[in-house]
Amino acid sequence: HRQEDELRQAIADERFEIHYQPRYRSAGLHIIGAEALLRWPHAERGLLLPESFIPLAEETGLIATLGNWVLRQACRDAVAWPDGLVVSVNLSPLQLRHEQLLDEVKAALAESGLPASRLELEITESALLQENAGTLALLSSLKALGVRLAMDDFGTGYSSLSNLRTYPFDVIKIDTSFVGGMQQNAEDHSIVRALIDLGRGLNLQVTAEGVETAEQLRLLQADGCTEVQGFHMSRPLAADALLTLLARRT
Ligand code: G
Ligand code: G
Ligand code: MN
Ligand code: NA
């Protein structure tokens, strides 16, 4: 239980950081928002990435408290950004099972003063595995608040197109793995194009994630992908570094 105790203590002491990866409109590469990515600066082990502690947080139920901290901190940070920029927060599937999520989102918006339209919640399809009336009601209530909903890692895992019909998503985020392969691999490029067309047909925004090269960006622009995110434009940045970048741009 040593790791669990350590995680519990770090949550109690709020010893986490959020890094923000800018998201851009493909045409002109204007920043339109940023994705909140959780980091744990650890005294002995360095800056820990989510995959090294989110699973433990999920197993122990600590994700509820940690996820709520991320939500509140991301809203507080995003209020300082130029008007209209959207902050995207990743939700664990377990957070969608908790009835208090709706109230926590309302509270995070109210206490920060961030307009609901500037908060986007990213959900992976594993969260939607069991058709669940509670999940649909929750997502509909979040949507009714004015929050945006993004389907994350689209095309991987348990993808089902019916999720796009059932749930009120605003955005599809095309998974890094397809974007990473599109330059060398005709199949990956075909999948990316199909997802872009699907988004257009369903009136959803499409964000391509994991854009690492100028050529990938060019292909995505040519294919009509409206939004891009990735190391080619910017790595995830500490909150103050993002503010510096935004100040230089506006
Ligand atoms: O940069 P990156 O290594 O941060 O993110 C790795 C994974 O961790 C991604 O799948 C991302 O969705 C997830 N992740 C990042 N931040 C959070 C968070 O605050 N909550 C949850 N549940 N997942 C996160
Ligand atoms: O939430 P999601 O699973 O989409 O998490 C995004 C992940 O992708 C994070 O771990 C983030 O650091 C990572 N990422 C962001 N941009 C790039 C990129 O250009 N290339 C790769 N390989 N990963 C990226
Ligand atoms: Mn994400
Ligand atoms: Na993703």
TrEMBL record:
Signal peptide: none annotated. It comes from the Bacteria. Residues 1-250 form the EAL domain. This is Bifunctional diguanylate cyclase/phosphodiesterase.
